[in-house]
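Q: I'm a student working through a structural biology exercise. My instructor gave each of us a protein and asked us to get a predicted structure, then write a short paragraph describing it. Mine is Flavin-dependent thymidylate synthase. I'm not confident about reading structure output yet, so if you can add a plain explanation after the tokens, that would really help. Here is the sequence I was given:
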Amino acid sequence: MDVELVKHSARDADVLFAARVSTKGEASLADVDADAEASAGLVRYLMRDRHGSPFEHAVMTFYVSAPLFVFREFQRHRVASYNEESGRYRRMRPVFYVPAPERRLVQVGKPGAYDFVEGTPEQHRLVVDRTQQACLSAWQAYTDMLEAGVAREVARIVLPLTLYSSMYVTINARSLMNVLSLRTRREDSTFPSYPQREIELVAEQMETAWAALMPVTHAAFDQGGRVAP
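A: Happy to help. First, here is the predicted structure for Flavin-dependent thymidylate synthase. I'll explain a few features afterward.
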């Protein structure tokens, strides 16, 4: 999973002036370049009492390359703007996701109370073999249709969810915290989450980039049990 921060307007100070306009009005303009470290208490207060709107003024755009099934999970959040590579307008690339040996394969437990454990070598070989077979067959069908003159938007219907695509995601810090609260697994989270590992790999890279931009806000998010304000 590849994630790249391509542009941003995101600083801890952005949270401060947005919050202070409620009490200072036009005088909050003096806080646009405020020292966020000196005002970490205000950030923690906003996070703790879930005054979330000031965090919406910090915005990031990420480029993400991942399998289609990861995108479908991500877009369920409906809290970001997305533009994705289109199989209608370009020929897709024959790049497919195949689980690595360390990918846990066996689900233990029932919905709402389950975990994943290591699979056997035999199970991993089965997953790899069948995935490769399905992808090769689907790609052959796709290229056969294209070569026969079938439109790309029709030929693409046979391609599997393991196909890689790319998209831009523009998201504010509040919405990103919502995503991270659900798509990363942390033992110290107030509300435990059990994300699919592939989308967690994307979320972890986004969090690393965001934490570097807004360390005070990220620390408050962690200290508050990773609950989005």
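A: Here are two points you could use in your paragraph. The first strand starts at residue 2 and ends at 9. The chain has two domains: 2-86+165-223, 106-158. It's a good idea to check both against the output above yourself.
Q: Great, thank you!
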